[in-house]
Amino acid sequence: MIIRTRQLRKVYRVGVERIHALRGIDLEIEANEFVAIMGSSGSGKSTLMNIIGCLDRPTAGTYELDGRDTSRISVNELALARNQRVGFVFQSFELLPRMSALHNVELPLIYAKGRWRDRRRKAKAALERVGLGDRMTHRPSQLSGGQKQRVAIARAILNNPAVLLADEPTGNLDSGTTREIMQLFEQLHDDGQTILVVTHEPDVASHCNRIIVLADGLIASDSGTANGHGAARAEQARA
Amino acid sequence: MLNPLFYLQAIYLALSQIWANKLRSILTTLGIIFGVWAVTTVVAAISGVTTMVLAEFESLGGSKMFIFPDRPDDAPRNKYPWEMIRLKPEELVALATHCPSVIGITPQTTFGASIQHGERQRDGVSVTGIWPDWHDIERRTTLIGRPFAGIDEDNARQVCLVNEAAISELGLDTDPTGEHILINTRRFLVIGVVENKQESIFDRDTTGTEVFIPFATAVKLQSPEFFFMITMKLKGPEVVEEAKAEAKFVLRQARKLGPDDPNTFEIFAADEFIEGIQKVAGIMTVGGACVVAVSLLVGGIGIMNIMLVSVSERTREIGLRKAVGATPAAVLMQFLLEAVTLCIAGGLIGIAAGEATSFALSVIPGIGLSQAAVPWWAIVMSFSFCAVIGVVFGMFPAIKAARLDPIEALRHE
């Protein structure tokens, strides 16, 4: 089990008002699942994503990532968990403009302890995995949107994370490039990577094996862990 | 705590950040640049003056001592009349005999006299009565003829030495030995010529006419209550205290001063001048440093301002760094290093400008700063002060960055 949450709740305080973003999520995700999390804005999917990604802590309930309880750890331990066990891919890539692709990919290793001797080799291997072996010295401004997102994916998979979290990874890409990126995710999935994609696009979700729909802070539907054809699940999501 | 790559990258990043915002960085660090420039230049100038003054003292013979008559502070004039405090020839003799730390001694009494040579007459010419040791003490040897000898003094002979300037002024031969001049109508034999005074920072005008006569002769030419001072040459700079004690003892003995009576004379060692000059230079340096500290503080505020801008401009970058595992401490360190790098870069430019300016000062003739150079401690001090400014004023923006919530930061537009 890579991810297990029990009665996960998150309450935000805005002034005197309390906003219940998550109201008791029970979720289990096995290793090597390829999951889409859908839902309208305000459904709580970003909050869930943040907690799964160790960017935030739940108000109540427990969250286990890769067998370790992560719901009550310190800020520094959260940072370490993000560094070692989670890989992020964002809608707007979030590459540092003045650094080459290689340096961007290396970034997480800067914050890792000890193991930096073979960083260059690791970063190159990650870039080759995403098909950018020939663009290592390019800066983000010299890369296309799809290439930028590949660099970001290389950065996310660098430390072999327990889970790869992608937040609207194709939101800024055209449909052709979207397909390429989703194929890359499928390829990583075939290699054994556990992937969570937050999206509102059924086309993107159709690449996944499991679709979870959130509404109003609760799981509204879950296509389940059964192996089925992605496209059929997407139909279900559309319905 | 963080791996070395982090520091390297933070410095690299800071430099590239500075390079990417060249104009902004220069404007920001201008306060630091000017502050450091000012401090290095001022310190270079002060140390130049000090070095030169001290060198001058050494060339004059560092271990000299002077004795003047002196009325005790706050004492009523009638209690210590001139007759009581003025130096007397027998005291001079006592000093010459009883001070073992002293290797040369001369009185000096100078008065204005009218000098006549042939048709020429000059009034108000400086005539000085001296002992033969004077040549050695003042380092003024004779160019022509012979110096004074003991016999001139013992017999109070009417002989004189003139300086180079006097030759043309009085219309003497280029070798005037054997000629006679009239000093206040008395006939003196010229026995030699001494060099003009050496130029020093105390004495720019070295061209005045001077005439020297034996002290014993000068005594006769002046009123009984005439003034003279005593100059002594010591064995070395290390015996200054002994020499002072000896001279004090001899004089107090000669004047029959009781244990509670104050000194009626003053003893002055050249070392005290040196100490005084060093003190003044120290005060000037501290004063300059205070002014510069203020300008560096202003510069530091500029740094803080731009670092705050940088933090808010790079909010997303901070969010991303936190998302890939940067702890608050790592983010803090990054922005602190950036502020310090900025300050040190400014400091380096300032030091370079200060070096250039002090070199320029040292080659401009006639302003007496040929020894101006930035001392190493000023460079070290400026450098570390810049680093401290960077840490102090970078701290607030860095804390701000470290506290950013990664979720908020990544959402920032």
Structure write-up:
The complex is a heterodimer of chains A (about 240) and B (about 425). With about 240 residues, chain A is α/β, with parallel strands linked by helices. Chain A has a single domain (about 5-240), classed as P-loop containing nucleotide triphosphate hydrolases (Rossmann fold), CATH 3.40.50. In chain A, about 35% of the residues lie in helices and about 25% in strands. Chain A has helices at about 45-50, 75-85, 100-110, 120-130, 145-155, 175-190, 200-205, 230-239; strands spanning about 5-15, 15-30, 35-40, 60-65, 70, 85-90, 165, 195-200, 210-215, 220. In chain A, the strands form two sheets. Chain A has a six-stranded mixed β-sheet with strand order 6-7-8-3-9-10, sandwiched between helices. Chain A has a four-stranded antiparallel β-sheet with strand order 2-1-4-5, with helices on one face. In chain A, strand 1 (about 5-15) and strand 2 form a beta hairpin. In chain A, helix 3 packs across helix 4 (about 120-130) and helix 3 (about 100-110) packs parallel to helix 5 (about 145-155). In chain A, about 45% of the residues are buried. Residues about 230-235 of chain A have low confidence and may be disordered. In chain B, helix 2 packs antiparallel against helix 10. Chain B is elongated and about 105 Å long. The interface of A and B includes residues 53, 76, 79 and 83 of A.
